[in-house]
Amino acid sequence: MQTHGVATCVGIAWAVLLAVPIVSCSPASLSDNSTRTPAKGIDVGKLARFLSPTAKILFPGSTDFTAYTARWSNLEPPTPSIVVVAGIEKDVSKTVKFAFDYNIPILAYNGHHGTHTTLGKMDYGIEIYLPQLNTITIAKDMTSVTVGGGVNVKTLIDTLWEAGKQAVTGWCECVSFLGPALGGGHGWLQGHHGLISDQFLSMNVVLANGDLKTIDAHSDMWWGMRGAGHNLGIVTSVTTKIYDIVSPNWAIETIIFSGDKLKAVYEAANKDLLQNGTQSSDIHNWSYWQNDASLDPNNPVIIMFVVQEGVDVVDPRYTTPFHDIGPLMITPQSGTYKDLAAWTGIAKESPPCQDFGLNNPRFPIYLNEYNTTAMQKAWDIYAPAISGENNPYSLSIFMWEDYATAGVRARGVKSTAFAFRQDLILAAPLIIYAPNKARDLAVEQLGNKLRELVQEGTGRGSELHAYVNYAYGTEGPEAWYGYEPWRQNRLRTLKKKYDPKGKFSFYGPIA
Ligand SMILES: Cc1cc2nc3c(=O)[nH]c(=O)nc-3n(C[C@H](O)[C@H](O)[C@H](O)COP(=O)(O)OP(=O)(O)OC[C@H]3O[C@@H](n4cnc5c(N)ncnc54)[C@H](O)[C@@H]3O)c2cc1C
């Protein structure tokens, strides 16, 4: 029962639970959202016939379409024409094959926290919504778990916790398990076990031509999937290692300083936490530069978290050096691993996990130590740029993440496509502002300037190490995947073999 171009939906509702009335399948009603390119040329009726009864096709104008196309950051967001909500893994492969055959752009949506500005190049086509692929199956021998391609971090942590288990996952409760992992993946347990993707044992992945393959360490794709995976396929499920919960209890001290203490604070962090790369695997240190008018009405403050595993109070040998600097406030807390996200402001209910409709670009850079001279220069630009009454960037956060890294560095530097194993700190200004085209360029310049100042303190010249999952989008493949020619060649070879048409190139494209 097809018409030209887009099909009517009559006769296919048995196969697909359509979330809008039949009439909204017509091209005219698809164009009701003026910022979207209508799905002309996408034969929805034909696509629907390939899908399972648990799949849905959503169109602009429906509540679900609006909900499932929302982004965490609205700077250069993708604007798909229709959404396929995958009900089973095969729905992904059928949709990708359909898009391959008819040369239609596709993009997997998972936690929707990806921020690359290149995502905006997806201005037409099919979004493949993964969160309904949400199965979690712990193996009988309790050493691994098979996780659906759309499982969210918090769901996985909670499910494993109930079983007395843990996995290396992202720390933030609102992102997907796989989105971070495919770019390497940082999390609280990486100091013991390595990156999220270092734990993988096998995965089901849909290739650009729609083939659904199970791969493991024997596949040539395996290396690339763990660091540059967004480029090579859509992972519909993954089997990953799990561990006994050795230390359920964790403690934190949140220590807040005024900006004039910057040098003293980060010199202490270098000496007493980082310790020239010998930081304990039980210790993590994060800090945010952000406004808190109750503490300093004119400037941002430095919010320092010292987090320790396996204790109820953070060992004073890590915190006393900071107390001695004269903080504005000290807040100790204790609990379990599951409290960490709330303590550090990234629980599902925390502001960073909400879709406020703001623009949230980051400008990431990996470091090996805190260079306080470079940081002071960055502060001197950042503080006035985000402070003051009615400042449009007042919600911004300059993030400095010093996770325990021993487990990451213990693996061979060439072992996966994640290139920056030896780096110790992940920093990034996150400039938050309401969408306003007139501000975009100034924000990009500010973010790049701040990053350049920090870069000057690395001694790496112009060699930028940028976490692909925090990237602004213009850094380029060497900054995301490493400068060694062999890395770039290996990635290009994989891309050519597995995605020659560049179907998976809206996020951190290899070439
Ligand atoms: C609030 C917040 C917290 C964060 N916390 C962490 C963290 O704890 N650890 C960390 O390392 N990073 C973290 N990040 C960065 C994070 O890795 C990236 O934002 C990542 O893109 C999020 O993935 P997503 O699934 O949420 O987003 P999405 O925008 O849905 O996906 C991002 C990209 O990955 C692709 N993708 C997603 N799932 C799949 C899949 N199954 N197969 C193939 N491609 C897929 C999408 O197509 C898209 O291109 C955080 C970011 C934010 C904003």
Molecular structure report:
The chain is an alpha+beta fold and 511 residues long. The chain has three domains: 22-129, Uridine Diphospho-n-acetylenolpyruvylglucosamine Reductase, domain 3; 136-244, Uridine Diphospho-n-acetylenolpyruvylglucosamine Reductase, domain 3 (2-Layer Sandwich), CATH 3.30.465.10; 249-481, Vanillyl-alcohol Oxidase, Chain A, domain 3 (3-Layer(aba) Sandwich). The chain has 16 helices and 18 strands. It has helices at 27-30, 44-50, 63-69, 89-101, 153-162, 178-182, 190-193, 221-228, 262-274, 316-323, 340-343, 372-386, 406-409, 437-456, 477-481, 485-498; strands spanning 56-58, 82-85, 106-109, 126-129, 136-138, 144-148, 165-166, 200-206, 212-215, 234-241, 243-244, 249-258, 283-292, 296-309, 329-336, 365-367, 397-402, 425-430. The strands form four sheets. A seven-stranded antiparallel β-sheet has the order 15-12-14-13-17-18-16. It has a five-stranded antiparallel β-sheet with strand order 5-6-10-8-9. It has a four-stranded mixed β-sheet with strand order 1-2-4-3, with helices on both faces. Helix 9 (262-274) packs across helix 12 and helix 12 (372-386) packs antiparallel against helix 14 (437-456). It is globular and about 70 Å long. Bound molecules: flavin-adenine dinucleotide (FAD). Residues 75-245 form the FAD-binding PCMH-type domain. InterPro entries: BBE, FAD-bd_PCMH, FAD-bd_PCMH-like_sf, FAD-bd_PCMH_sub2, FAD-linked_Oxidoreductase, Oxid_FAD_bind_N. Pfam families: BBE (PF08031), FAD_binding_4 (PF01565).
